[in-house]
Amino acid sequence: MADAEEAAYFEAGRSAEVVINRMGPKTDPRLREIMSVVVRHLHAATREANITSDEWMAAIQFLTDTGHMCSEWRQEFILLSDVLGVSMLVDALNHQRPEGSTENTVLGPFYVSNAPRYAHGDNICLDGKGEPLVVRGRVVDTEGRPIEGATLDVWQANEDGFYDVQQKGIQPDFNLRGIFESDAKGEYWFRSCKPRWYPIPDDGPVGKMLAALDRHPNRAAHLHFIVSAPGYDRVVTHIFTPDCPYLPEDAVFGVKHSLIADFQKVDDPAQAAERGFDGPYWSVEWNFVLAREGALQGADN
Ligand code: BEZ
Ligand code: FE
Asked: What is the CATH number of the domain that holds 84?
């Protein structure tokens, strides 16, 4: 038998090489690069863990169940990527920013575009649940100069730990979502309720996997933001409360030290009245620092 023919047959000792060599000359170079790495690592992992046939079938069943769980409203594969830390890794590789810029974190599956546009001071907490909160601050560039007209798209879970889209007909539509714009001083402010921790959807295969790994599904309490302005790199981020027990063990590894804010309790009737509350409330001041487009040092930016 010719050497080339011999080399094309499967052999456990050089299994990855055999598969990689099967790619034809018309393969896109980047696809060839990625698939070569994936096949090499997949074969190495299979060998290193000495995977049994039953274990491999269980893995295939798990991926099948994950696919079956996906719908217009549920993306179980993204959840899988999130709990394995891959979403955070991909983001980190692609969004390295100049020192001092606001860091990114996971988008999550509950973002809805076209939330209502609000004026400063409006309250996005439409169900009236939870402890009142004022969020205020500035959007600035890396030199500290105000950015006027930046868009702040905010969303959060309610006091019961659910997003409006998870409780259609129970929560008002667009509860705890809104879009605000920074003014000439770069300032913004709005009212909401203090976020609390909540479990990511864990009634599917990813939830079962977490349970098997003795991991809880809880996310540290946060507000989500997408902050954007023309000429600046869009930031997909969170503000975390400092008192949440799940900060060091966020289910999707989304916590970064620089995103933990200082939430202050305000128990002063005059200030409460000024902010439109009738009792004590929480207050957080948070500045978003946007980097100029092209100022990124990321792999593909
Ligand atoms: C969220 O924060 O909304 C989220 C992020 C990742 C997975 C599930 C939920
Ligand atoms: Fe969230």
From this structure: 2.60.130.10
